[in-house]
Amino acid sequence: MEEPTVPTTQKIDFPSRTENLTLIEKMVDEVCEEHKINEDYYGNILIALTEAVNNAIQHGNKKDSNKMISVAYQSNAKKLVFTVKDEGEGFDYDNLPDPTEPANLEKTNGRGVFLMRNLADEVSFYDEGSKVELNFNISAN
After folding, report:
1. CA distance readout (Å), 26 to 29, 48, 68
2. Residue 7, SS3?
3. Tell me: the pLDDT tens digits for 62-109?
4. Can you say how many angstroms the Cα of residue 116 is from the centroid of all Cα atoms in its chain?
5. Do 132 and 83 form a contact (C-beta atoms < 8 A)?
6. Are 119 and 80 in contact (CB under 8 A)?
7. At CA 101, angle to CA 121 and CA 123, rounded to 5?
8. Ramachandran bin of 40, using left for φ above 0, alpha for ψ from -120 to 50, beta for the remaining angles
9. Coil vs helix vs strand at 103
């Protein structure tokens, strides 16, 4: 009989400053090493989570370094779940412009949620969009 897998949980809180994205890279490195995630999937996790945190800093907290970002992750043998929470008012995540439409291709922003939705296995928004949950299925990777 297999031993039950105890979920691993980790949480970090930091001020809304772009230089703190290095904390996310370190977290993803540690999580992916611990779970022996392959290189391609590592890239998906890193990009999706970095986009979520960058959106929280830039749009959620409006670059206000007095506001905090909270990033948590839980894992078990089947999946990794990352949660990013900012102190902003949220946004209308169901009505975003499509960054693949010709009129939007030249824009330098507007791809974060699109990337998250395409790189994570599941993306859910809560608290009017001030909290995002990224799920990655790791049992097949």
Report:
1. 5, 14, 18
2. coil
3. 999 999 999 999 988 899 999 999 999 999 888 877 777 777 677 666
4. 7
5. yes
6. no
7. 20
8. alpha
9. helix
